[in-house]
Specification:
single chain, 209 residues, alpha/beta, Rossmann fold, globular, SGNH_hydro_sf, phosphatidylcholine lysophospholipase activity
Length: 209
């Protein structure tokens, strides 16, 4: 199994063995994990875009999981514009999803891709003084989330929705203090909850439930 992601997949702020990607190794149906998480990584053409570096996935990966999107919305310097459904280049969020999905289907035709939505983040706690829900391009976090869901459903892609997870909602300050270190990155307890949520989703998708 290979996981393409950002700092949450990388395990920013926690020990390697405490990150959700490492915790997934506790599941009996997962033999190995190639962690391709990079701090700040975006789906679109921003920073270390996944829509360009997906080719680093190992050829024999049985599952390719893509867990990203929060930096496309929330990057301080390189937010990715949403764009339009018909976009076919990674200069926009819609376009990056097209480029990534079509690239995965071409290069890894026998490997199942599974996408994971972003978490709800709390930008005030994260360090932004603004209370506006809009990024510097004028888009909201909800808009990026709905682009993901629209794309997954229209392409019949298997996905795990953690944006709606009750415990992992950083906009709730009590939950934010319990499961996040900064309003964006899960702490040790948050990674444990995240691992369980992703593991449950994986089991349903691959037919273990």
């Amino acid at each position: 199994m290979s996981i393409l992601g950002d700092s949450i997949t990388y395990g920013y702020g926690v020990d390697h063995e405490e990150a959700y990607a490492s915790l997934l190794m506790q599941e009996s149906y997962i033999e190995s994990i190639q962690n391709l998480g990079i701090n700040g990584s975006t789906l679109g053409k921003g920073q270390d875009p996944i829509s360009e570096r997906y080719t680093s996935v190992e050829d024999d990966a049985d599952i390719i999981m893509i867990y990203a999107g929060t930096n496309d919305y929330g990057s301080t310097f390189n937010p990715v514009p949403i764009g339009d459904k018909g976009d076919k280049n990674n200069g926009t969020f819609y376009g990056a999803l097209h480029v990534l999905y079509e690239g995965l289907m071409t290069q890894y035709p026998n490997t199942k891709p599974i996408f994971v939505t972003m978490l709800k983040r709390n930008d005030v706690v994260w360090g932004r003084p603004e209370t506006t829900p809009y990024n510097s391009l004028g888009f909201t976090m909800d808009e990026y989330y709905h682009v993901l869901i629209d794309f997954y459903k229209s392409h019949r892609i298997d996905y795990i929705d953690i944006y709606q997870h009750e415990e992992l909602n950083a906009l709730n300050l009590d939950l934010c203090n319990q499961y996040f270190m900064d309003g964006l990155h899960p702490n040790k307890q948050g990674h444990a909850v995240l691992k369980d949520a992703i593991a449950d989703g994986l089991k349903k998708i691959i037919g273990l439930d």
